[in-house]
Amino acid sequence: MSHKIKKPPQIAEWLLRRLANRDETTAIVGDFEEEYFERADSHGFFKARLWYWRLVFISLPSFFTNLCYWSGAMMKNCLTVALRNVRRHKGFSVINIAGLAVGMAASILIAIFVLHELSFDRYHEKAGRIYRVVAQFEPTGEKKGAYTVPPMAQAMLDELSEVEHAVRLSLWPGNDLVRYEDKLFLEKGVIFADASIFDVFTIPFILGDPQSALVEPRTIVIAKDIARKYFGTKNPLGKSLRFEDEGRDFKITGVIENCPATSHFQYEMIASIISDRTAFDTGWGGHTYFTYVSLRDEQARPQLEAKLPDFCRKHWGAHHYAETGQTYDEYIKDGKEYYGFALEPLTDIHLNRGVIDNLSVKGNKTYVVVFSLIAFFILLIACINFMNLSTARFAHRSKEVGVRKVLGSNNKQLVWQFLGESVLLSLFALVFAVLLVKIVLPIFQNLASRQLELQLFQSVFALPILIGFAILVGVLAGCYPAFFLSNFQPACTVKGVVGRKSKGNILLRRALVVLQFAATFGIFFSTFVISRQLEYVQDKQLGFDKDHVVVIHRAYALGKQAGAFKQELLRYTGILTISDTESLPGRHFNPNSHRLEGRPATETPTLHTMYGDHNFVELLNLEIARGRFFSPEIPTDATSSVVINERAVKELGLTDAVGKRLHKEFGGAKPGEFVTIIGVLKDFHFNSLHQEILPMIIRPLSARTWYFTSVRIRPKNIPDSLAQIEKTWNNFTGGQPFEYSFLDEDFDNLYRSEKRMGQIFSVFAGLAIIIACLGLVGLISFTAEQRTKEIGIRKVLGASVTKIVCLLSREVVVLVFAATLVAAPIAYFGMHRWLENFAFRIGISPSMFILTALGTLAVAFLSVSFRAIKAAQANPIDSMRYE
Amino acid sequence: MRGELMKDLTLTEELILWAVWKLEGNAYGVTIRKRVSERTGRIFPYGTLYGILAKLCRKGFVAKSVSDPTPIRGGRSRNYYRITSRGREALKAALALKKTLWDEESELALGAK
Questions:
Q1: Mean per-residue pLDDT for A48-56?
Q2: What pLDDT score does A132 carry?
Q3: What single-letter DSSP state applies at residue A316?
Q4: What ipTM was predicted for this assembly?
Q5: What is the DSSP string of A389-414?
Q6: Among residues A250, A424, A673, A690, which is most buried (max CB within 10 A)?
Q7: H or E stretch including A826?
Q8: Is B104 among the domain residues?
């Protein structure tokens, strides 16, 4: 038995070798082995093995202490050296840390924004199984609308077993005058909902009972802030709020928490939907409500979706058959017409632009992606710089590396030292970055129009993630200089011949510069194109005069006084025209199907409807192509005349529309009554330039449809005219809130999201450029330093300052040119895609590329020239003496 | 300078220095550990042993020499330790201290039972 030599346990031995003090390893392992065999002889191998393990185990603590003691001493030295270096090269350190800090701050900002956008509606307990049911107007699902018919929610609940709860919301942007005793406010956040809203969504109650809160008609629950506004510290339960416009009282049955910023529908008060007659409609034609369902379990979506076509055939099909005599299958047969239902996950709603829902707070998936990319690129540029500068600076420390190596440091230790240093710097940068974010966040909030917060301590993850991120950046930025330096031959480094000869290293650095200038070019170019497109959109001839028009909202508050109000106003010289309308260019026009007299019931083209009075054409200086506009002298104009635009003529399939008749009811369901087309307007852009001009129809205004009164004023003395209008309004309404806007501003608001995007883009473009320039300064400093002797010799031999500046800058120019070549196609492709959002857009011309390239070059050259000139002006005597 | 301050021995250091002295020419890891474990009745880990040996070396109380490799140790060499004259001084000082402390005392004085 003792003949067989069994080796000691390998794993234990390995552990021992890893952990034992390096100088003593051989001796220790030897001791272990000697004693092991001794024991194996007397007690057998099994016991010897056990003993070996046990002894390794109890030795561990002291090994560890030993290890820590030595690395601790080394760490202290490294830290001292690191701090000393930061202090000694102040300029370099500032550029380095500042560059990284700005880059980090930018990416943190964007990360906050992106996370905010992605967090929408995730706070609901059932978020994973709530869906919005949307109507689909095309088999492929390209055209979808969030408005659905009133009876659908109940039908889904009754017939589809997967549905747990269903709720209808009415989210029409409100403008309600609400009174409690002497307190009168204009409320914009009133929505209507079924009682089941609290079963589907997570809306915490402060007072009241969610089960019974909205069961009765004319009941309402209000948010905490609203309760405070009307009732102060008093208990609002059981009190009533009066809605002045409708003259209805709503009993308060609950107080809820304020609406989270990350809800796709915003509310301050939720009233019971059954307060309106529409809620009891049984017809499947009027699309008014949003319908949401919560499913019994998360996996039920496919089953439910499979049942939807039959569900649609049964209900909407029956409705369609009753209207037109055409069955559902016939209707969708040829693929031209379609109607169906689809499910949209709750958490997708905020970023999904594929469904028309007119929500006031709406995200954009493209922007989220684009901003993430920008954050990534800015961070990349900042890291590259950090790397470049660190390499340049570390090269000066080759002597230190040499000495350390001679004194017995190995490569691994040096790598750790430099990685540690760069991580330390990046942690510094993080501190500055967080401070910077704190300062800039309020401004950024405005730009992004979102409630954004840097929650360092509220979330368990924030701080570790940030620090982890800083360490990652430090490691990424530090690994190249670390490995590059630790490989130096001590003999060379001590002599001071370093860096000059390594070709690969220079190549890599050049590649990095090209990459960052490519990114700079891309951001530059995008900003340029965006601003040009926005200029174009703003300056384009719209076919109507949008300037100097004051729009008064809620004009129906004037009631019977309207005529007197207008007469009074027109007496002032500043006021030119007054017109009452339901909607205005830039706002929503209801799409409705219309049917020409004598055409089949299935031929119902969609026209966008607006109601207006006879002054509308004069108000907007519209051009009439054929026929005439409404006239107050002709009584039939008030009831049975309509005016359409040229596009609508084409849509109806006519050449001369004047005199033709349309069914009075939308879609022509009830025969008998007709309206006559009395005129055709020239096309004008009543919607945003994202879209082509749509077919429109203007119907005579009635008291029911009247919402706006618009006043065209003289361009002179606008404040006076405005004051006059307000005074008159107050006189005639008895002090109701005067709410107004300017038509041109309203119209420009259509491009709000693009404008904001443009602004944010330019901010980050600026940052990217600053960071890239810092990088260039670092690079040129490095080159200049390395070529000090060469420059000295050249000067002695008669080279001029200009020549030497050229010599130094030439490289940069070539690199920037290369970057342009790399970035141009990508930038072109990206911006082309963006421009496709607009039906009316500018073309991308070569001159834009040239201008951007020149701009980039100028920026690069500027940042380089200072350092280059300084180097070129140096006295050759100094540089020649340089050792 | 620092050596002067650390002239005093800790108890473990004293123990190991004593073992090295006792073992005369044959003091290396295995024998030292055995001798110490025998005397204290506790298992003495190598980790601690080498930590203290390194310390004693630095203080100049023991001297280290490396032997030729032996097959019993898997071809590894031994580190032999030998007490120096300074080490002897230190042991003497420790002994003297013990004597002054305990000479006139008896176990009983620390408490009966």
A1: 84
A2: 93
A3: I
A4: 0.79
A5: HHHHHHHTTHHHHHHHHHTT--HHHH
A6: A250
A7: helix A801-835
A8: no
* Residues A404, A409, A410, A414, CA torsion sign: negative
Q: Is residue B111 part of a domain?
A: no
**Cβ contact, residue pair B30, A65, below 8 Å:** no
Phi, psi of A840 (to 5 degrees): -115, 115
- Alpha carbon distance A649, A665 (integer Å): 19
A62 lies within 8 A of chain B by CB: yes
Dist. CA B31–CA A16, nearest whole Å:
19
Rg (CA), chain A: 37
Q: Which residues of A touch B76 (CB under 8 A)?
A: 26-27, 29-30, 33
Q: Label residue A421 by pLDDT band (50, 70, 90).
A: confident
B102 reaches A (C-beta below 8 A) = no
* Residue span of the structural domain in which B21 resides: 2-95
Tell me: the pLDDT tens digits for A579-614?
Answer: 999 888 888 888 788 888 888 877 878 888 889 998
**Between chains, do A30 and B77 touch, taking CB under 8 Å as contact?**
yes
Interacting residues of A192 by C-beta distance below 8 A, sequence separation 6+: A169, A170, A270, A271, A272, A273, A275, A276
Tokens of A486: 């630790």
Tell me the residue type at A542.
Answer: L
For A34, the closest of B51, B66, B73 (CB atoms) is B73
Taking each helix axis as running N to C, give the angle between helix A503-539 and helix A846-873, from 0 to 180 degrees, rounded to the nearest 10.
130
Question: CA A548 to CA A722: how far, in whole Å?
Answer: 11
Contact A360, A261 (CB under 8 A): no
The shortest CB-CB distance from A29 to any of B33, B43, B76 is to B76
**Torsion-angle region of A659 (φ positive above 0: left; ψ -120 to 50: alpha; else: beta):** left
A352: three-class secondary structure by DSSP: coil
Cα–Cα distances in angstroms (integers) from residue A417 to residues A74, A511, B42, in the given order: 9, 26, 41
Q: Give the start-to-end residue ranges of the domains of chain A.
A: 10-80, 129-356, 365-538+752-881, 575-713
Q: Quick check: is B109 in a domain? A: no
Average pLDDT over residues A297-320: 90
**Is the CB of A58 inside 8 Å of chain B's CB atoms?**
yes
Strand partners, A609: A590, A697
Mean pLDDT to the nearest integer, A618-645: 88
Q: Is residue B53 part of a domain?
A: yes
The CA distances from residue A353 to A142, A192, A348, A359, in Å, are 10, 24, 10, 10
Question: How does residue B34 score in pLDDT terms, banded at 50, 70 and 90?
Answer: confident
Give how far the C-alpha of residue A90 lies from the chain's centroid of Cα atoms, to the nearest Å.
38
Q: What is the spatial distance between Cα A561 and Cα A579, in angstroms, rounded to a whole number?
A: 15
Q: Is B46 on the interface with A (CB under 8 A)?
A: yes
- For the record, the structure tokens of A670 come out as 């009830």
Residue B82's CATH number: 1.10.10.10
Interface contact B43-A32, CB threshold 8 A: no
Which of B50, B70, B72 is facing A28, going by the closest CB pair?
A: B50
Q: Do A28 and B72 touch (CB under 8 A)?
A: no
Mean pLDDT (chain A) is 83
Cα dihedral across residues A38, A40, A44, A47: positive or negative = positive
A310 touches chain B (CB under 8 A): no
Of B28, B54, B72, the CB nearest to A37: B72
Q: Give the three-class secondary structure for A566.
A: helix
pLDDT band at A457 (very low <50, low <70, confident <90, very high): low
How far is A110 from A105, CA to CA, in rounded Å? 9
Contact A33 B74 (CB under 8 A): yes
Q: Output the pLDDT for position B1.
A: 36
Choose the closest CB to A24 out of B45, B48, B50.
B50
Number of domains, chain B: 1
